[in-house]
């Protein structure tokens, strides 16, 4: 009785749209026949559809394989010096020059570990003369390493400023000095220059 004429005209159109074949486009005024989902439900449905192609176990297996492949590439790069797959701390021309600078020199610091073992053995012998000799050797080694490291650090800093004036050189000297403490054959990335060769 109180219904408007417009609603009465819309109702038959909606009924017709429901009866029509599903292949035909739905009438814009016809009801959907289902409630509109909440945004959170719609997003979770989209995620579930996107992730149905790979199970959790398969995704974990693929991540393990990718990690293993990346580690293998990195290991080969550390042996060959390939810049593309080196760790971030070893990448860049500044770090490469610092490595070459250290590897081309004879560094007293690289003999620190062997000398420390010898001094330790001498200090354990219960002979006062040998213990005093070990203590003296220990002091001499420490002083020589400090002096050699200071000289190397100044020379490297000067060469870096000459060769790479616009590059970021932060931490390169400390990186080189830490490398000089390692024995040459144990250094990673492997040395790419010979002793005495100018980098």
UniProtKB/TrEMBL annotation:
Keyword Nucleotide-binding belongs to the record: no
Annotated Polar residues bias: 38-54
Biased composition (Basic and acidic residues): 1-13, 23-32, 55-68
Keyword rRNA-binding assigned: no
Residue numbers spanned by region Disordered: 1-68
Residue stretches spanning the membrane: 111-129, 135-154
InterPro entries the record matches: DUF3043
Keyword terms of this UniProt record: Membrane, Transmembrane, Transmembrane helix
Family annotation (Pfam families): DUF3043
UniProt protein name: Membrane protein
Species per Swiss-Prot/TrEMBL record: Streptomyces cyaneogriseus subsp. noncyanogenus
């Amino acid at each position: 009785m109180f219904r408007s004429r417009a609603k009465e005209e819309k109702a038959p159109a909606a009924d017709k749209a429901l009866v029509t074949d599903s292949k035909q486009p739905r009438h814009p005024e016809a009801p959907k026949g289902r409630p509109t989902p909440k945004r959170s439900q719609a997003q979770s449905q989209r995620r579930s559809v996107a992730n149905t192609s790979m199970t959790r176990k398969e995704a974990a297996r693929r991540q393990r394989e990718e990690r293993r492949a990346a580690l293998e590439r990195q290991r080969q790069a550390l042996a060959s010096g390939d810049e593309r797959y080196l760790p971030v701390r070893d990448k860049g021309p500044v770090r490469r020059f610092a490595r070459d600078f250290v590897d081309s020199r004879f560094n007293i610091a690289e003999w620190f570990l062997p000398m420390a073992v010898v001094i330790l053995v001498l200090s354990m012998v219960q002979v006062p003369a040998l213990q005093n000799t070990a203590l003296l050797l220990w002091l001499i080694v420490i002083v020589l390493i400090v002096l050699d490291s200071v000289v190397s650090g100044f020379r490297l800093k000067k060469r870096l400023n000459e060769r790479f004036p616009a590059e970021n050189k932060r931490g390169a000297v400390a990186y080189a000095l830490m490398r000089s403490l390692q024995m040459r054959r144990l250094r990673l990335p492997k040395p790419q220059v010979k002793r005495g060769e100018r980098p």
